[in-house]
Amino acid sequence: MKKTAYIYTLGCKLNIYESEVVKDILVKDGYEIAIKPADAGVVIVNSCTVTSNADSKLYKFLKKVSVSNPNATKVVMGCYSQLESEKLKKENIADIILGVDNKYQVNNILKDHQKESNYIHELDISKVGFEDYHLTKYKNHTRAFLKIQDGCDNFCTYCTISKARGRSRSKSPSSIMKDIENLAKNGYKEIILSGIDLGSYKYEESEKLFLLKDIIKEILTVEGFRLRISSVEPWCFDDELIDLFVKDDRICPHFHIPLQSASDNILKKMNRKYNVEIFDTLIRKLKKKKDVIISTDIIVGFPTETEDEYEQSKRYLNDSLLDTAHIFSYSDRPHAASRNLFPKILKKDINRRSKELRNIAEEKYNQFYKKNIENDKKIIIEKIKKTDDKYLYSGITDNYLQLSFTSTDKYKKGDLVNIRVK
């Protein structure tokens, strides 16, 4: 009988990478990856627990699968199941519940599983090491993600990732370079360095201590691709890392630096390790890179946030050199310290503030786009659609503009093509 699996991924780039690893493991074990959950014998959710919205999506999806494919074996893995395995068990909505350390053993667990009884993996997160895997190809991805770090030691008060993922740990430089060389050989024109707290990368090997700046320099000794850096916290930058980001042309001019609030008082309550002046100085230095887009995260409605403190974030987003922002409406997380902070902000005020900031973020992005019109950029082809005698191509530039163009020339997904921004 044919073995089939479908994987539904919620959350961050790291989850995307780990889902690709799970697919690779299952394919090597004889599974076919289904296009729709209704066609799969095994349905896997790689979960996220950053927001209550991610929780809602998880339960909505599982309930939908229970109706459309009641005989499927349902597996939940990742951050939500790590923290809320008992809740999942109580809801009786999953057959197998895994944590963050044994995602890559799912094929063996599936072999041993008996449909009559739930499998729950209890985990002491303090003992988890870096779970390494050499992934050389990505199903349905034209750009390659590479996880080089996991876990977090920052303990921001609104966040549960430190509890879900464990302490910060890193992939060895020799293992990273093996993956980089294979990905470059396989023709990937862009590699995305990923981690939960990427800036905390640290590994000692061959009597040398590698930090993020060191491993990036090592990676750039291999030719044939551009390098995109995922989110890096403001306190992780020193002058050498800033200089590397700004001056090396192979590092994509696209930086995501989380702000969270432009109120120093709120930043302290969030347990963030900087103030607005430090953040702004960093952004001004990074803005020296040609064509760079700088994005950020802002949380709206953090407990105790006054209207004036919100206005500080609003003014800063509007007036700063930031080019866009992801706006998150605050919600209490069950294991986060901020759930014990009062007073809470009214939902209607959070919604209003979020809408205002999203409008500003959208307008700033539009302004950034207009500055790029008539610039020549290279895009990686991600989507292709045949229209009469032409092809419609879509992809992204090094500075993360989503562009489309038509041509009679034939390209394939993953190709790097020169176009002019219109």
How would you describe what is shown here?
- The model has no long low-confidence stretch (mean pLDDT 94).
- Helix 12 (307-319) links the parallel strand 14 (293-300) and strand 15 (324-329).
- Strands 2-1-3-4-5-6 form a six-stranded parallel sheet, with helices on both faces. Strands 8-7-9-12 form a four-stranded mixed sheet.
- The chain has 422 residues and is α/β, with parallel strands linked by helices.
- 34% of the residues lie in helices and 24% in strands.
- It contains 13 helices and 19 strands.
- It has helices spanning 13-28, 52-68, 79-83, 85-91, 106-112, 161-165, 173-185, 212-219, 239-247, 264-269, 276-286, 307-319, 347-372, and strands at 3-9, 31-33, 42-47, 73-78, 96-97, 119-120, 144-150, 169-170, 190-195, 202-205, 208-211, 226-229, 254-256, 293-300, 324-329, 376-387, 390-397, 402-407, 416-420.
- The protein is globular, with a radius of gyration of 22 Å.
- It starts with a strand and ends with a strand.
Give the tags.
alpha/beta, single chain, 6-stranded parallel sheet, 4-stranded mixed sheet, 34% helix, 19 strands, 422 residues
Percent helix, as a range, is 25-40%
The class by helix and strand makeup works out as alpha/beta
Rounded mean pLDDT is: 94
How far apart lie the N and C ends? 52 Å
Largest sheet: 6 strands, parallel
Tell the overall outline.
Answer: globular
Proportion of residues in β-strands: 15-25%
In total, the number of strands is 19
Oligomer: single chain
- Poorly predicted spans: none
- Annotation field: number of helices: 13
Strand order of the largest sheet: 2-1-3-4-5-6
Report the C-alpha radius of gyration, rounded.
22 Å
